[in-house]
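[Meeting: bench + compute handoff]

Bench side (C.D.) handed over the final construct sequence. Compute side (W.E.) agreed to return the predicted structure before the next meeting so the bench team could plan truncations. Sequence as handed over:
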Amino acid sequence: MVVLLLVLLGLIGTAFSAALWREASRRAQRRPSVEAVGLGAVTNFFDTLGIGSFAPTTAWLKFRRLVPDGHLPATLNVGHALPTVAQALIFIKLVQVDPWLLVACIVAAVAGAVVGAPIVVRIPIRTVQAVVGVALLIAATLYALANLGLMPGGGDALSLPLGLALVAVAAHFVMGVLMTFGIGLYAPSLVLLSLLGLNPTAAFPIMMGACAFLMPVSGLRFLRTDRIDLRVVIGMAIGGIPAVLLAAFVVKSLPLETLRWGVVVVVLYAAIVLLRSAFSPLPAPGAQVQTEKSA
């Protein structure tokens, strides 16, 4: 079953790469953003070590104003898709976990992404800002709890009894929906599986496998929308894949406590900016027209 997952993942990654390049060629956006290459390298390097990539990427995109707020879900899901496929290929192969639990959580997360992606591309930008802003506040809280030693330690299990496994599967469906809004799956998946008694190391192939399958699936939907800049996306992918390999096979581990506190600060900044935009008064119709003309 693990071999089948790896083969499917390889095929999905190849097909998604072709679709991304084809769409970038159609839009004349094949030249990657140099800044996005660096962003993809840094965030995916630490993502492979367990920091997570969505929250810090969102913070940097907001700080530098690289994309409009409405582009955030598509940028995160498409830009990090191929580096996450690389992570999953490595960790599914190297880390042991119950294959049935692995497959069930992956299928549930993909189903959630199929449900969520069509909603995200149609909802108002202010809703996206509010949802992602709240998610960033939650992410900052999780980072802080991890540094304070208040996160669940987990057990030694490599599988879960049926009842707890069903809880994990249902939760990954919800996480799959939330992923399409730009809300990272890694932290909530790791917390949940640890609370259920799974060995935290065994959670890595589950959370990485779930993201690696669902992100290309939802990404195909995002590629057909106008809320995406493929120069940024391609840059993140180009920088991210070698960074994943470096983190997984060369560095392997780092003392990350200080880095997490830094992430807390930048993520809180991005959350405040997004929430302020989401709940600020709408401009008068005449002012809106003038702004659009001047843009």
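W.E. noted at the follow-up: The radius of gyration is 18 Å. C.D. will use this when planning the next construct.
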